[in-house]
Amino acid sequence: xxxxxxxxxxxxxxxxxxxxxxAAMLQQLSDRGxxxxxxAFYRDPAPDGWCKISVHSPAQTPGWDELADALARxxxxxxxxxxxxxxxxxxxxxxxDEVQAWLRAEHPHLTLMSAGQTIEIYKEAxxxxxxxxxxxxxxxxxxxxxxxxRMATESRVTxxxxxxxxxxxxxxxxxxxxxxxxxxxxxxxxxEGIHFQTDNDSExxxxxxxxxxxxxxxxxxxxxxxxxxxxxxxTFAVGTADGFAVLRDPIACxxxxxxxxxxxxxxxxxxxxxxxxxxAEDAVSWEPVPGRVYSWGTALVA
Amino acid sequence: MAAPETTPAAxxxxxxxxxxxxxLNRRLHGPEATGRIRVVNPDGRHALAVGVDAECEVExxxxxxxxxxxxxxxxxxxVRGNCGVGVAENMMSGQVIVEGSASQAAGAxxxxxxLVIHGDASARCGISLKGADIVVRGSVGHMSGFMAQSGxxxxxxxxxxxxxxxxxxxxxxxxxxxxxxxxxxxxxxxREEHVTQLRELxxxxxxxxxxxxxTRYGSARQLYNFKIDNVGVY
Amino acid sequence: MSVTGNGHNGTPxxxxxxxxxxxTFDRDTIADxxxxxREGIYDIRGFGAKRRVPHFDDLLFLGASVSRYPLEGYRxxxxxxxxxxxxxxxxxxxxxxxxxxxxxSFGALSGQAKEALGRGASExxxxxxxxxxxxxxxxxxxxxxxxxxxxxxxxxxxxxDLRRADAIEIVVxxxxxxxxxxxxxxHKISDRVAEMRDxxxxxxxxxxxxxxxxxxxxxxEIKIQELREITDWRIPIxxxxxxxxxxxxxxxxxxxxxxxxxLDGMQGGTAATQDVFIEHVGIPILAAIPQAVExxxxxxxxxxxxxxxxxxxxxxxxxxxxxxxxxxxxxxGVAALIALGDNAPEHDAQYAEIGSxxxxxxxWQAGRDPAGISTQEPELAARLDPVVGGRRLANYLRTLTLxxxxxxxxCGKSHVHNLEPEDLVxxxxxxxxxxxxxxxxxxxxxxxxxxx
Lengths: 302, 234, 452
Prior knowledge:
The structure holds three protein chains of three kinds. By secondary structure, chain A is of the alpha+beta class. Chain A folds into two domains: 2-44 and 125-297, Glutamine Phosphoribosylpyrophosphate, subunit 1, domain 1; 47-117, ACT-like. Chain A, domain 2 (Alpha-Beta Plaits), CATH 3.30.70. In chain A, 28% of the residues lie in helices and 32% in strands. In chain A, the strands form three sheets. A seven-stranded antiparallel β-sheet of chain A has the order 7-2-8-1-14-13-15. In chain A, strands 9-10-11-12-16 form a five-stranded antiparallel β-sheet. Chain B has helices at 21-28, 192-204; strands spanning 12-15, 35-40, 56-61, 76-80, 95-98, 114-117, 130-136, 150-155, 171-174, 185-188, 215-219. Chain B is elongated. In chain B, 56% of the residues are buried. By secondary structure, chain C is α/β, with parallel strands linked by helices. Chain C has one domain (77-419): Aldolase class I (TIM Barrel, Alpha-Beta Barrel). Chain C has 15 helices and 14 strands. In chain C, the strands form four sheets. An eight-stranded parallel β-sheet of chain C has the order 5-13-12-10-9-8-7-6. In chain C, a hairpin with an 8-residue loop joins strand 3 (82-84) and strand 4. Chain C is globular and about 60 Å long. The chains are: A alpha+beta, B mainly beta, C alpha/beta. The B-C interface holds B 21-22, 25-26, 29, 46-47, 50-51, 53, 65-67, 70-71, 73, 85-86, 89-90, 92, 104-105, 108-109, 111, 124, 127-128, 130-131, 146-147, 149-150, 166, 168-169, 223-226, 228, 231 and C 39-41, 153-154, 157-160, 162-163, 186, 198-200, 203-204, 206, 208, 212-214, 219, 222-223, 225-226, 229-233.
């Protein structure tokens, strides 16, 4: 049970304020998700042929520079592009899956939070207001972002159990609700080669999307597959390189509000998280209907 | 909608960026709840003007969160914006007017009074209705009128899937298309008494519409006592 | 379930040498399958789970001896008071004894029964709880402390009763049917019940299993906020759950903002639901209490968010053991009705007329109760004198309290809340694992510590 938020910018001015506004949205969603918080920002693309990764370390002195050197040695070129609290981002001259495999083998105590061209995921246990401050969200710019505040239902409160979950390149998912058939589905997906870090139900949904898309489905088709293959209650927001998508289950008990102005498209669990955005009073707002995929992005039509 | 008239100055005013929701509700529960009361900058906050039991007029300028006007008695509460889940839930009497759109469970379990929504209402409008009247100028979402026991739901626009599922004795009037009827909900004949009731409701809601364009839906009453042959519906 | 008669020496009736009954398809099971084939509907009944499950009987107290010293009865106090709702409410509920009356509806019970419960509870300084039909004037009048339930159906819900209540109990579920909704069959929907519930008289009531305007603890938090605003933050708000994934449910109830949690084990009673639901869903209260307490301790909320447990509480031994495991209070339902006269031998002839017998009667859904408790028929209900019933309940509650104090004093406790898990041992491996107390004579708790 949680709060979710998504913000897609349409202007350069908004791009520079992306983190500031997402942080304000997360503060409003803190009551419904006090256990942990997480964000996925899409920004600052890695060079062609390179990938960007976001890594978490529980250690006090994580040795990020040493890790950058080790990556460079292994893959030819790599650099540390940023450090925020317990996370760091790197760009590496290699394909993401090779870097993932190397990290799992050589540095199993590190957690790979995200991989792709533009995505950066940061997530941590603790109050959302603390998270916003520790990760200096207000300073982050980018094209679009997803955020999540968590009220843990059946799995533990840890960094790894927080959302967003990323099981594919530049792909991430945040979830409000509770799935009921995720355990069996996790076993099936594991056999299909999807890797899971936790016993969290939302991570299974993320893995399902990755699996369907690896088999050739578009994001829309994969999300429509959720309606058939996932059981339970959900409002999903999915981040992609292009933008984001929203889907509610057919019963649609968990909330979702959408709004749009000339400057942005936003989605949140409660309207008060949208109310903090500039021009919200004049935004067109609506509620996504159950069982229909909504998507926004540079390449997609709203 | 009638053009705004010049109205008398508000007896009481709240700015929710300075005043607390607790303070607003506490004072609405006391002797100051009389005449016109104005609330600005709601910013989507929850539980505004809940549990009011007084003949006063509360005007809220902006969008509100969940349960606005919950359990209202006697007051007239107007939201000049959209509202979140459960507006006027369990209302007992009085009027709640939403000038924008309503989220899910609008008028849930409401027992009396009139709820008017000028925009749309989303899923489960009038769920478990227990005697109140709801008039929606726009459309309503799926599962509207679910287990509605008594009262009326009037929809000038369309209705979503599973309208009136598991309906008891509430009356549903819909002018537009119905995506699908729920279990035990059937189309019924519009007789003179229904046309009269509908006309009165539309007038009370200050909504212009021709009653003859509406279709009435009600319970087939097949689920009132368990019969094994209905097992497919359960 | 059909009644199986035994001969005087325990030999099943009809048995001859050479006949062997199946443990899987015993005669009760055969009767049930044949009933289903005849009627085409699941068996609906009242009462709680009847099969044996690990329970408080499988735990024993370690009374004082040489290493510990007992308290004298009478002179040396053993206090029993408890306050519920200290977290947020400005008017928490003070109870003289840690035993409350659980939620049971007018509709399921007669008006006389509700009045008797109110009288008895008030006499000893404890609370009663409304049920799935709303608050009756008699109950409010006769209960000095009344907890008002908010259920998925919202029958009779109104803000005046909300403000007249001493506490609000948001019912997510109950032990007999976690995940199920209320049920009342047509013959119990009398004129008065129909009016209170806004239903046509004589129909079979269908009830929702989810609340109409919130789903999930994140939205429950907002609903609680609304209820507090309506009642000006005066009164405590409880959340009631049937025991299933208790560890998580308790944590979520705390996060949603509950003042107290009511935890009902699978043995908890009901007026009417499917037999399969009663017997096969939910966990024993013995297994649920340690999960709840662990969750509260982890959140630093033990004794700050009070825990009231129910489901098969019968004697002061059960009360004491529940408190020792970490509960703040217990609630009784079935036992209270039995105290009023349910299943009493003096009605045996009338039970026989309706196909039952004293000690077996569980057809509370049928509304033909000879004791006048689970019925709406005026002549039957009139058999229960509320004043007499109230006195009987008060007697029973006093007995429970004295028994609890006796055991607590024997363990050296001057307040029943000072009972702790270390005062208990288990007789069976299952009970040890569930209650997380050692097997008697050992240090062993299966799953928690090595065998020494």
